[in-house]
Design a protein that fits this description.
single chain; Arc Repressor Mutant, subunit A; BirA Bifunctional Protein, domain 2; 3-stranded antiparallel sheet; 20 helices; 21% strand; elongated
Length: 505
């Protein structure tokens, strides 16, 4: 049987005793590696050669990784600065430690997110506590990630796959996989060589010249090998969080809701005061709130401002009781990044947003909120909140729970758990929890309740309103299996995970 020229060259270059890689055979035959691969598969199908495949991983240090190999990992520098600033592990103000460490820009977030993960200490209420007796594995002088970066910077290999995977997630190395194919002659292949193989002229493609001349009628074309290697092309795609947000919007619109919109930076009046949140509440201090150094809001509905102040001081109704604590209109007019998108709900329920709010009504938003939280697997400084509320007569907790069960069922989640909770602005209130599909861990996915009279009466609403704030990122964790919110977006985002993650439809 006549063989193609590439097949004949491969048979003559291959060995029955020593396996040769495709690259070696390509060099010996002056053929392209893809041509050798195609010929090897064709010969394998006829039993003339054996093809063995192995997967090799290689790691290449990135520019960022090379910088940290020279200057030290951000979390290591933060730990050393915390040790120098503290006394026997006593908490130290975070700003002081960060200043002493010399960290700037994104390095600060990177250091904070890895500080506790490595056992260097803890972060609580804006203070760092460095553990002087950290486990040996967490010793900065023997940090396995730092050691791996140093080895890669010196063109040495690293055998610890777990460390390489972590560095790959952090974007400090690029781990690539390569399939290595080795070819060996079989007994039938040796026999074919001894009997003599004849090369047949074949064409691997149809050209315009062949069509014009009619040569294509007599030509013998090589078979198309669907198993041959092809370059992997990574095209652009919608981010999984954006896809999840769009899916949430589709579900809520299908449930009869209309979308709200409003400013990300807003007066504290709309963010907290209308919600009957006392101005001395811990969540309204700089520990949780991002205040902006800009002039205060001038335009607020004065009559509503007066009612809100009266509610904070005296409560509502004959049996009402306020907070009996200072209330400042100056503070209410100050601008901050919204800590929750309930500021939009306050604008809409008050009628200030210009929407029709005669009951019954349903509104929602899927927008960003900002909090000065401690970074961990389930918290970021900015996140997407699924805000929603329903205005109608005689609403109950059963209505609220039923709404959640229907909403999450659209994403294949049917085991929602509810836990009673306290909010200054809703009563009754409860938190929502879901089970992570990979770890089995129960994680909080939202907060909800029915607005108190101190909120509704002040806004001029004379019927029930049930409301909630759900976490989009945590919904994405439950549906995609992501175990760390930072795998979804941020400096540690896992690009390979994002390329393959699917939004539930």
């Amino acid at each position: 049987m006549p063989r193609s020229e590439a097949e004949v060259a491969l048979l003559r270059a291959a060995s029955a005793t020593d396996a040769k890689t495709v690259e070696q055979l390509a060099a010996e035959t002056d053929l392209k590696p893809e041509t050798v691969t195609r010929a090897a598969f064709d010969l394998r199908d006829d039993g003339l050669v054996a093809v063995e495949e192995t997967v090799e991983e290689s790691a290449t240090i990135t520019d960022e990784g090379r910088t940290y190999a020279e200057e030290g990992l951000p979390e290591v520098r933060l730990y050393r600065a915390a040790l120098d600033a503290g006394d026997d592990g006593d908490p130290v103000e975070m700003g002081r430690v960060i200043g002493a460490s010399g960290l700037e820009g994104p390095e600060v977030d990177i250091a904070l997110s890895n500080f506790a993960r490595k056992g260097y200490g803890s972060i609580d209420s804006g203070k760092l506590s460095a553990d002087p007796d950290a486990d040996p594995d967490a010793d900065p002088d023997a940090d396995p990630e730092a050691a791996a970066l140093a080895a890669l910077a010196a063109d040495e290999s690293v055998a610890d796959d777990d460390v390489l995977s972590q560095l790959d997630r952090r974007g400090l190395v690029e781990v690539t996989e390569r399939t290595v194919r080795s070819v060996t002659l079989t007994d039938d292949g040796v026999t074919a060589l001894m009997e003599g193989v004849e090369a047949a002229e074949t064409a691997d493609r149809l050209t315009p010249e062949m069509l014009t001349s009619g040569e294509w009628r007599e030509a013998e074309f090589s078979e198309y090998n669907v198993e041959a290697d092809a370059p992997e092309i990574e095209g652009g795609r919608k981010h999984v969080l954006r896809g999840m947000a769009d899916r949430v919007k589709d579900v809520l619109v299908g449930m009869g809701f209309r979308e709200m919109e409003g400013p990300h930076a807003d007066a504290d009046f709309w963010i907290n005061d209308c919600l009957f949140m006392p101005q001395d509440h811990p969540a309204r201090t700089h520990w949780d709130r991002f205040a902006l150094d800009v002039p205060p809001v001038r335009e607020l509905p004065e009559r509503l401002v007066d009612r809100v102040e009266a509610t904070h001081r005296e409560g509502v109704g004959e049996d009402g009781d306020g907070y009996h604590s200072p209330w400042s209109e100056e503070f209410a007019r100050a601008i901050a990044l919204r800590g929750h998108t309930t500021s939009l709900t306050m604008r809409y329920l008050s009628g200030y947003a210009g929407a029709d709010v005669d009951p019954p009504k349903r509104y929602f938003s899927v927008e960003k909120a900002y909090r000065n939280d401690t970074l961990d697997a389930t918290h970021l400084l900015e996140f997407f909140q699924i805000e929603g509320w329903v205005m109608a007569e005689d609403l109950s907790v059963r209505d609220l729970m039923g709404t959640f069960e229907e909403f999450y069922r659209q994403f294949g989640i049917t085991d929602i758990e509810f836990k009673p909770h306290y909010n200054p602005y809703t009563e009754p209130s409860f938190e929502l929890f879901g089970r992570h599909p990979e770890t089995g861990e129960i994680i909080e996915i939202g907060n909800s309740g029915i607005f108190r009279d101190e909120v509704l009466d002040t806004l001029g609403v004379d019927c029930d309103v049930m409301a909630w704030g759900l976490a989009l990122e945590r919904l994405a964790m439950l549906t995609t299996g992501a175990e760390d919110i930072r795998d979804l977006h941020g400096t540690l985002a896992d690009l390979e995970f994002l390329r393959n993650a699917e939004v539930t439809y």
